[in-house]
Automatic annotation (TrEMBL):
Pfam families: Methyltransf_16
GO biological process: methylation
GO molecular function (one): calmodulin-lysine N-methyltransferase activity
Record keywords: Cytoplasm, Methyltransferase, Nucleus, Transferase
Subcellular location: Cytoplasm; Nucleus
Organism domain of life: Eukaryota
Listed EC numbers: 2.1.1.60
Class of the enzyme per the UniProt entry, highest EC level: transferase
Protein name per Swiss-Prot or TrEMBL: Calmodulin-lysine N-methyltransferase
One cellular component term from this protein's GO annotations in UniProt: nucleus
Organism name: Phoenix dactylifera
Length: 365
């Protein structure tokens, strides 16, 4: 039965429309304005996020900006773009992150296939504070990797708003990382982990993801910024939450950080289990998660945290600047983030700790 003409579409059907538009080529060069308008109603793609860490794209090839040594020449390819982040910490050098920008393929709405975009066109998908995939373009190779490794591809899409907030929150609490071993889970391009490594006196920062493509970009970004880390050891790691971690890292991390990792409910149990396996049993050890509620997704994750024998604290107002920005978006005083909704966009702070391990009972005879 067809829907009556003019009846409103559900959010679910509009989101399917976004996917349909990504896959279908258009025979006409004219854009479908009605379709674009309807999908914008539900799209959560951030135009600028919370804008907590200023950044700008670098116009030249990476080797032109950082020198021409063999080590740096091949770190950014013709399908990559480099973003320079200025951390709000005195005497800390800028960070340069390499992001993947896919070529336009047969599914792109501008009809081009197999070409590389010059910098002027890349600026369509890069604003001052975020790197976003080319609009209406999808890379089918990413889906092949996702299927092969049973992972999602969100780490390649952009630097998500929650990652920006996590990096800012960590920079605002540098003392908690002093002499600590730190792990970032599901890091994407690794902004938060790199910011911790460059700004704090952490002993070691391990930046991890389950997607091998993402881990390759993490390692590139570590190499590019190697001079910014001082005495802090920094390394990348491929870490699948549903696999048993190597014995040498079990319960070895003082601090675990993650942003927007609770969206997919099918990963909740394994995510809770990996936190329990890797977090130290010691006073002061904790996992710091920043995630929007997204319906009941965060609540379901917290249930898994409890079932795993961990405890948590949920904090809504954890930073005055982030909270003020949230209120301005919510009440319409700042219109730079279209379709801002608290449930989908505002990351809540979750602090996760171990229950105190039970002490063995010793009986005297």
């Amino acid at each position: 039965m067809e829907k009556a003409s003019g009846s409103p579409s559900s959010p679910a059907s509009l989101r399917w429309e976004i996917l349909r538009r990504s896959f279908l080529s258009r025979s006409s060069p004219e854009p479908d304005h009605a379709s674009q308008k309807s999908t914008k109603i539900v799209s959560r793609k951030a135009a600028g996020g919370f804008k907590l860490i200023s950044c700008h794209p670098l116009r030249g090839h990476l080797s032109e900006d950082l020198g021409t040594s063999p080590r740096t020449k091949d770190l950014a390819g013709h399908r990559d773009v480099c973003i320079c982040y200025k951390l709000p910490v005195a005497s800390v050098p800028n960070l340069t992150l390499v992001f993947k920008i896919p070529q336009a393929g047969p599914t792109s709405t501008d009809g081009r296939c197999g070409i590389s975009y010059p910098f002027a066109m890349l600026t369509k998908c890069i604003d001052r504070y975020t790197c976003q995939r080319m609009e209406d373009c999808i890379d089918l190779n990413d889906f092949q990797i996702s299927t092969g490794y049973s992972i999602d591809t969100t780490g390649l899409v952009c630097c998500w708003p929650s990652e920006d907030v996590l990096a800012y929150f960590c920079i605002s609490h540098l003392d908690m990382f002093r002499s600590k071993r730190v792990l970032e889970l599901g890091s994407g391009y690794g902004l938060a982990g790199l910011a911790i490594a460059a700004s704090s006196d952490a002993c070691e920062v391990v930046i991890s993801d389950g997607n091998p493509q993402v881990v390759d970009y993490i390692q590139r970004n570590i190499s590019v910024n190697a001079g910014a880390f001082g005495n802090t050891k920094v390394k990348s790691m491929t870490l699948h939450w549903n696999e048993e971690p190597a014995s040498d890292i079990l319960n070895s991390f003082d601090i675990i950080v993650a942003s927007d990792c609770t969206f997919f409910k099918e990963f909740h149990e394994s995510l809770a289990r990996i936190v329990k396996s890797l977090l130290k049993y010691s006073e002061g050890s904790e996992a710091i998660f920043l995630s929007p509620k997204r319906g009941d997704s965060l609540d379901k994750f917290l249930e898994n945290i409890m079932e795993a024998g961990l405890q948590y604290e949920l904090v809504e107002k954890y930073d005055s600047r982030v909270w003020n920005l949230h209120q301005n978006f919510l009440e319409g005083r700042d219109t730079s983030w279209p379709n801002y909704l608290k449930d989908h966009c505002y990351p809540l702070l979750v602090k996760i700790t171990h229950h105190e391990p039970e002490q063995p009972c010793h009986l005297s005879l």
